[in-house]
Amino acid sequence: MEQHISSAFERDLEGIQAQIMKMGGLIEAAIRDAAKSLATHDVELAERVRDGDAAVDALEDMLNDEAARVIALRAPTAIDLRVILSVMRMSANLERIGDLAKNMAKRTGILIEMPEIGGAAKSLRRMSREVEAMLKDALDAHIQRDEALARDVIARDLDVDQLYNTLFRELLTFMLEDPRNITPCMHLHFIAKNIERMGDHVTSIAEQVVFLTSGTRPGDVRAKSDRTSCDPAFSTPVAARDV
Amino acid sequence: MEQHISSAFERDLEGIQAQIMKMGGLIEAAIRDAAKSLATHDVELAERVRDGDAAVDALEDMLNDEAARVIALRAPTAIDLRVILSVMRMSANLERIGDLAKNMAKRTGILIEMPEIGGAAKSLRRMSREVEAMLKDALDAHIQRDEALARDVIARDLDVDQLYNTLFRELLTFMLEDPRNITPCMHLHFIAKNIERMGDHVTSIAEQVVFLTSGTRPGDVRAKSDRTSCDPAFSTPVAARDV
């Protein structure tokens, strides 16, 4: 990979890479704006996030069509093919993150009608900032073929999971304190879970980068994730204890 | 597509199709067993579902490697390439469904320690049966290139969403009735959401089938889904009203 002879294939691949970076930029903005619309009760911004998702979907379709065209036309070598197939997977992950951001923005209009829940908005903002930074780094790692950075992104997903688990506990406490908190907490929990899933998709992108740069699947480096299904703290019926 | 000359490519493709059907069979069983383990409090069965997921992941890796090999070796035509790329996407959807089934099974051990919540277990069983049937039909539609059946699967996802929305309301009511229900309801809600997401992935498989058989993306036939973010019934703070 030291010497590059710029072939027709490479020019095509550059075009595809440019598209994935464009998609990535839109998705970073969608995460940021969705979180901001929630924090600042900005219904118009939320609306723009929802409307913007169509552009991402269109980009994904274009990227897939273009990738298929390049594969059919250029008959790339096994290694080049691996790059294209990985980029297609990345674009699918980005598209899913966009859906999740849209879903998040949808709840802005609902939550402003409800009582505010302690520091939940702040926690959500922190989670989404972390995911946004991870996404930026994952895409940088892809372009710069930086395996170490990609592995760093994978490791940071544990922080997001940790933030999620902490918030889940907090929400439970608020629900127990006052039944009027139950409905807003359910919505906030949805949002938290959405951000946590965005983190999983970013991790999946970073895993593709590790696979492309090292040839091995990171597989088991990625411990998992949503601890509410196995942490004993969540298995004791807190409600029975506290109320 | 009337006359088939059995080429090396077609034999390879058949191998890949056989693998996807094998994956599909494992996933159908995983959905069924995960739901059964919840309904019958069968912790050992839940354990088997969790352990079985590794086999699905391995099949997906194999399928991707094989698909990449076939593309590189046979340089398929644009149409044949589209089939392979679609099958790769389907396998990614199946893998995600497997993860969701595993996640669902993980909660069996927790829920048996908690108070039972009305008809929730029954509703979950019904949802998961519907998703399992949809998956079976989506895979049949793929093998038989049956566009009508694939479109039928896409339409049926709305029933799953409806079941989910109803259950969401029920869970809110139970939480308001007795705070001791909050923790189990949060877990049940996770499970319901997981099944609803399985339905989305099955729909995505069916959409691939429509794309392959008709050449067009079904796109907007698929209304969306989780109504708790836009249904006015969920936007009024029920808690404030009822308690």
Automatic annotation (TrEMBL), chains A, B:
Q: Which BP terms does GO give this entry?
A: intracellular phosphate ion homeostasis; negative regulation of phosphate metabolic process; phosphate ion transport
Note whether Cytoplasm occurs among the keywords: yes
Pfam families, per the entry? PhoU (PF01895)
Tell me where it resides.
Answer: Cytoplasm
**Role this protein plays:** Plays a role in the regulation of phosphate uptake.
PANTHER family registered for this protein in UniProt:
PHOSPHATE-SPECIFIC TRANSPORT SYSTEM ACCESSORY PROTEIN PHOU
Q: Identify the GO cellular component terms for this protein.
A: cytoplasm
Q: Which family does it belong to?
A: Belongs to the PhoU family.
Protein name according to UniProt: Phosphate-specific transport system accessory protein PhoU
Q: Which residues form the PhoU domain?
A: 20-108, 124-209
Oligomeric state and interaction partners are given as: Homodimer.
Cited InterPro entries? PhoU, PhoU-like_sf, PhoU_dom
UniProt entry keywords in alphabetical sequence = Cytoplasm, Phosphate transport, Transport
